[in-house]
From TrEMBL:
Protein name (Swiss-Prot/TrEMBL): Energy-coupling factor transport system substrate-specific component
Protein origin, superkingdom: Bacteria
UniProt keywords, alphabetically: Membrane, Transmembrane, Transmembrane helix
Source organism of this protein record: Microbacterium immunditiarum
InterPro entries reported for this sequence: ABC_thiamin-permease_prd
Length: 213
């Protein structure tokens, strides 16, 4: 029994150990997402004005800064992947000249930790839609709390802050959660993720019909 327990623990440790390819791909995801974060920041004032007809509705835009952690977690499938990719994205966005300067890194750390928690509470065992939505929802909660407490949103009325918070959570679920899951599946289908569990699972699903035949 002792040998079986040791073997099981060794298997888990090996499964969660970061490889060089994990670091490289997570970094690429983070850098690419950081550029998109920066572009989203440039578009934000115009998009915010479009949604200004309902105070607080701009929370729907929050997911545009949350997807890096969820996508990184879904692809790398290792503890720390979500927070790593989100922080790298925040640093890249900040380096490119985001209007929120150093606060971008603070938000990135909190958002990444929240996305990480979404996978952690499912014991890093659910990389399907549920895991993505949970991670996205918690990231949305994190940015909703941050923005309604420490940004210009905090000056809005209570009702508008509630609307912003709810909108941010919805955005986290849809943009960061659902969209990241769709992107991960699409990448896996192309063969780009064949060195990862996500890619191997996609290949196994493709092989099932022919095997049955």
């Amino acid at each position: 029994m002792h040998t079986s327990t040791s073997t099981s623990a060794s298997h888990v440790a090996h499964r969660f150990r970061w490889r060089v390819v994990d670091i490289v791909v997570a970094s690429v995801i983070g850098v690419a997402a950081g550029v998109l974060f920066w572009l989203w920041g440039l578009a934000w004032p115009g998009l915010d004005s479009v949604l200004s007809f309902t105070p607080g509705l701009s929370g729907l835009l929050a997911g545009g800064w949350l997807f890096a952690g969820v996508l990184g977690g879904l692809i790398i499938r290792k503890p720390g992947a979500a927070i790593y990719t989100e922080v790298v994205a925040a640093v890249v966005s900040m380096a490119l000249g985001t209007q929120w300067a150093f606060l971008t890194l603070v938000w990135g750390l909190v958002q990444g930790a929240a996305a990480e928690l979404g996978f952690a509470i499912l014991l890093y065992a659910n990389w399907r839609l549920l895991g993505a939505l949970t991670s996205g929802a918690l990231a949305g909660i994190a940015v909703g709390l941050l923005d309604t407490s420490f940004s210009s949103v905090a000056a809005l009325s209570f009702e508008a802050r509630v609307a912003y918070f709810v909108s941010a959570v919805v955005s986290g679920i849809v943009i960061a959660g659902l969209l990241s899951w769709v992107i991960a599946k699409a990448l896996a289908a192309t063969g780009a993720l064949d060195r990862f569990a996500a890619g191997r699972e996609a290949r196994a699903r493709e092989a099932e019909p022919s095997d049955a035949a």
